[in-house]
Amino acid sequence: MEQREDISAEEQKEKLLPLIMEEKAAFIKSEYGRLSQIMGEEYTENGEAKIFHPFPEDVKPKSDERIYGNPEELTLEELAMLPHLAHVIERCGTYSTMPLIQLYPEDINRMRLLADMYQELMTGAGCSPTQIRQLMVQHAEYMFAKQDNPVKVIRNT
Known about the structure:
4 strands; alpha+beta
């Protein structure tokens, strides 16, 4: 196990949390349309149908109305689990799986890193030197990629 950075967990929290939240916000902004469309959608886990970030009970769509979620409500853990969520589709007696959303590999890895670091900071455990290095070294590059290359979703209405 790696030795923790020589600064305290509180100091890490103070220095790293703003960077983590900045990257989360940049990711959400760049993927806003796609994320809003999958909120409240069904996925399958171990043969059981579940809903990704379900809407509150008081928010019920009319029969033909489509409701879109607010991706800013998503947690880092929800964002990190996205690549592992899929629909199971039954057709002609066979089953197929379809991902709930496709993400770039760098986004998958980054969201997992951010979620893990956030969890460690919130529990007071502190982050490893490797995690800190990854966050610090790749922060500017990730922010540049997300701010200058947003994904645009075109919908037919």
